Amino acid sequence: MIQWKGVMPAVTTKFTDNDELDLDMFAVNIKAQLDAGVHGIVLGGTLGEASTLEDHEKRTLTTETVKLVNGKVPVLINIAEQTTKGAIAAAQKAQDDGATGLMMLPPMRYKAGDHEVVTYFKAVANSTDLPIMVYNNPVDYKIEVTLDMFDDLLKCDNIQAVKESTRDISNVTRIKNNFGDRLKIMTGVDTLALESLLMGADGWVAGLVCAFPAETVAIYELQKAGKIKEALEIYRWFLPLLELDINPKLVQNIKLAEVHTGIGTETVRAPRLPLSGAEREHVLSVIKTGIKNRPTLPDYKNL
């Protein structure tokens, strides 16, 4: 059972200088997330450089994270595959490796039609006991999972949540009106997070949380407790940093921010390269300004 609520970091994958998994730094970051009070961990998403990971690396990340969280929060791994067969195999491995649930994208590369997408999701859902969050991001992945498609998908009991990344804030209300609590909503866009939560989203699959875990969880807990003004104050401070997530180089941006908060390195896997030149200077100035003006947080864990 997964409680689809709260803040679930889409964590970055840490690499050593010789391009292997850096499990020591990975553990430092996961500990910081848990200490801040996150409600779940999502592995191998866009931020986790999923497309560059070998199968055995995904499995290592899953088993290591399951050990690190030690039952405190659910561990989800993203499925981003090109074939139905590959997706079913990935779901089976995730289950074998101790994952609590799956985040799942539509088929990769091939622009599948609506019926093909629904058939793909259902085939995977019917092959596993793990609960599934459908990642709906038509902006980046060019396939939209519509309300009509969800109507069909929800015949599978283990399709339980959506990572709502359409960028259309009114979609939160449409989902609530159509499905009530049957489809839980985890907002997936950092720059629309508080807005989505206030419209009724259940939680936030977050990006900048990788570098700023406490601030992210504080926003969620404050709005949940009805302290909107306090949540808004932190969110307004946070927005220039959150905008680093809505960028083709979000991985490099967020990893650079992790360096400056002491819980990461900026090593990425090629073809990605660390930021350089004017681009790097701009991102650094956003990070440094954010850190300089970092708000004092209330005791958000005991509201």
Q: In words, what does this structure look like?
A:
This is Dihydrodipicolinate synthase family protein. It comes from Dokdonia sinensis. It holds the Pfam family DHDPS. The chain has one domain: Aldolase class I (TIM Barrel). The protein is built from 12 helices and 8 strands. The chain has an 8-stranded parallel β-sheet with strand order 1-8-7-6-5-4-3-2. The radius of gyration is 18 Å and the shape is globular. Strand 3, helix 3 and strand 4 form a beta-alpha-beta unit. The chain is of the alpha/beta class and 303 residues long. Helices cover 45% and strands 12% of the residues.
Order of strands across the main sheet: 1-8-7-6-5-4-3-2
**What is the CA–CA distance across the termini?**
25 Å
Described by the principal axes of the CA atoms, the overall outline is globular
Mean pLDDT: 97
Oligomeric state of this protein: single chain
Low-confidence runs of at least 5 consecutive residues: none
Number of strands: 8
CATH homology group: Aldolase class I
SSE order, one letter for each helix or strand? EHEHEHEHEHHEHEHEHHHH
Domain tally: 1
User: How many helices in DSSP terms?
Assistant: 12
CATH topology: TIM Barrel
Percent strand equals 5-15%
Radius of gyration, Cα only, in angstroms?
Answer: 18 Å
Structural class: alpha/beta
CATH top level assignment: Alpha Beta
- Named at the architecture level, the CATH assignment is Alpha-Beta Barrel
Helix residue percentage? 40-55%
What kind of sheet is the major sheet?
A: 8 strands, parallel
